[in-house]
Amino acid sequence: INDWYENEEYNFLKYIPKDETTIREIASDLLNSIKELQKSTSNYGFIHGDLWLENILVENNSNVTMIDFQDCEKHFYIFNRTIN
Fold first, then answer.
1. Could you give the 3-state DSSP secondary structure of residue 57?
2. Is 72 exposed, middle or buried (0-12, 13-18, 19+ CB in 10 A)?
3. CA–CA separation, 27 and 44 (whole Å)
4. H or E element: which one contains 80?
5. Spans of all domains in the chain
6. Which long-range contacts (CB under 8 A, 24 or more apart) does 22-26 make?
7. 36: number of CA atoms within 13 Å, CB side?
């Protein structure tokens, strides 16, 4: 399981034209700033990475099951709550 920044979807600089130097610099600085945030077991670890209605099953007795872990990664826990 990779850290979030090792996954291809975060390699967004390849989509920004090389002549857009200011935008590329801002994007790179932002990514580096997030990478440098303090990590601890209370704020960072293994997450689902794709929590949304289609990946959460609720039974009649209210048991909840999460499915589809293909996008799991190590990330800040808050990511699961904010991305979807």
1. strand
2. middle
3. 22
4. helix 78-82
5. 4-82
6. none
7. 6
Which residues of the chain fall below pLDDT 70? 83-84
Rounded to the nearest angstrom, the gap between the alpha carbon of residue 55 and the centroid of all alpha carbons in its chain is: 16
pLDDT given for residue 83 in this prediction: 59
Which two structure tokens, joined as six digits, stand for 58?
């609720």
Hunting for tokens 């609720």 — which residue is that? 58
Phi, psi angle pair for 75, to nearest 5°? -160, 175
Please tell me the predicted confidence (pLDDT) of residue 17. 96
CA angle in degrees (0–180, nearest 5) for 27-6-14: 45
Would you state the structure tokens that stand for residue 29, as one six-digit string? 């600085």
Instruction: Give the Cα separation of 24 and 30 in Å (integer).
Output: 10
